[in-house]
Amino acid sequence: MENTIALRKWLDDLKLAHPLVIAGPCSAETEEQVMGIAHALKDTDVNYYRAGIWKPRTRPGNFEGVGAIGLKWLQRVKAETGLKTATEVANRNHVDLALEHDIDLLWIGARSTVSPFIVQEIADALKGTDKVVLVKNPVNPDLSLWLGAIERLRSANIKKLGVIHRGFSTYEKTKYRNIPEWQIAIELQSRFPDLPLINDPSHITGQRDLIFDVSQTALDLNFDGLMIETHTNPDKAWSDAAQQITPERLVQIMRDLRIRKETDQEAEYRQNLSNLRAQIDVIDNQLIDTLGKRMKVADAIGSLKKQRNVAVLQTNRWNTILGKMILEGQEHGLSEEFVLKMFKAIHQESINHQETIINS
Length: 360
Known about the structure:
Elements: H1 5-12, E1 20-24, H2 31-41, E2 48-50, H3 69-81, E3 84-89, H4 92-100, E4 105-108, H5 110-113, H6 116-126, E5 132-136, H7 143-155, E6 161-165, H8 182-191, E7 197-199, H9 201-205, H10 211-220, E8 225-229, H11 247-257, H12 265-308, H13 315-331, H14 336-358
Parallel strand pairs: 1-2, 1-8, 2-3, 3-4, 4-5, 5-6, 6-7, 7-8
């Protein structure tokens, strides 16, 4: 991706002393609701007021947004509060209406990013626009698909471009609504450090109590900003009630998270060190999660061995695994001594799990 510095210019022009903040309700519900939230956010760190006008829903019958009338409410938000406005678009008609109502920031949702046809239609409709355009990661963990959407928009001569990391769908039950898969965002960031990267902790967590922690991780990983769903009465929201927070809570979070940029070399060193340590923290959490999954498989093996009255230790199987892991470790720059120590410890823990089951 050439000339990526141009992609960041819209963000640098804001000259922010804090991360970029995009906040507002998941859905525009009524004009009164939209304006009440906007006035509550008017004198805060919020830079863009977001509200879903068209809401893609997996199954029919759920609230799918108020439609174009909500764009008039966003116009009133800008006129009365001075906040710039943002909404999601999913087709050419949405784009045309959003541009007609002078919406400042448009984002492409995770469900749309998965379809090159949809992205191309939106790119054609936005060709040459000076509006900010952000692309959410696709619902499935596919970096190339995410980057493909960016490339289509760049080919349409859209300069004010960025991405939103909102996590990825999974069939597994986790504490998150959408698992972060931080390594994918880190990979995107390492390839294109000048591409503005926004985190959406609301959709990652699916619950308001985890928003602060995910936001802090994102900032530690050098994200440029946050998109946080905010509602004056979250529990009564018409969509995604559990993940929305009050304006007061948003203010407190931003106060606690605020990072002021320093310019000296020592500050740069600390920032780089903090970023690398945050990456290690993410990987360490993934290691623990993976080891936990491995032990659940070991438990299942223990149950099978108990049913068939088979010994826990299978020496041939163990030697085969060890030899294979030593070779794979060498390909990743890991010493034989380290791989032996690590897998002996893992193997012993697996044996302990299986013996507990067999002897129960």
